[in-house]
Amino acid sequence: MLLTVFFIPYTSNSSPLSECNKESDNKKQVSECLDAKLKKAEASLDKKVSEIRKKMEQKSIESNQIYPIRSFNLSQQSYLIYRKTNCNWHFDKSFPDTASSGLLKNCLIKMTLDRILELESSSETVKPADNKTDNSKTQSNNNDNNKQDGRSTKTAASKSGSDDNEQQRDDNRDSEDFRQDAPADYPADDNNYADNDNYNDNLDERCYIKPDPGMCEEFIMKYFYYPDGGNCSSFIWSGCGGVIPFESMAECKEICQ
User: Fold this and answer.
1) Which end of the chain has less neighbouring CB within 10 Å, N or C?
2) pLDDT over 70 at 28, yes or no
3) Full domain range(s) for residue 224
4) pTM beyond cutoff 0.70
């Protein structure tokens, strides 16, 4: 009797969300499933974080210098990441400030899962393409009005300047809230991150490689890397213990691999 066996190649294109959705259609059960996967991913990082810390300590000893980890602690770093990436949790409430890298690690894992949710729902998301059409019509109408009455140009410019000023006031208030809400020993002038609009604007587009679904561990250890150029520097945010400047991506990989 001839037995034929078919081998089906396995490709891991699934994400935590799709896996949990297969198990149940109930929103509560899906949420519990995602929480369980989050805890599992978090637990698997502990050993890796410890190994990286040891590598850093050894490298500091060999080079006879202390690696310039910033003076603020992990909870403060996490607060900064929370402000810049809108991690959906509340500083000092959702996660206890006890684990050696708990807050930062949790935030990054959560951010990865949020990114997965975003990728999976992107096909259903209304894209802002229509805004261009509306702006085009508005511009066309403005041009017609300008031809009819030269005062329209001044009115439009005045309104634009007013909007800019209002936005600036909102930005200033947000920056002020940041200083007031941040921990007391937060070094507000440290590289001026709190007030650097370009740093904030570039975060999603240039300053880190966006993860593929299911890459939580690799994302935290390898992909949260800031390339050189512009307002970005050679930083890696991870369980390594903070904001760590590196000479090059090669050195970064040597430490966090």
Assistant:
1) N
2) yes
3) 48-120+183-255
4) no
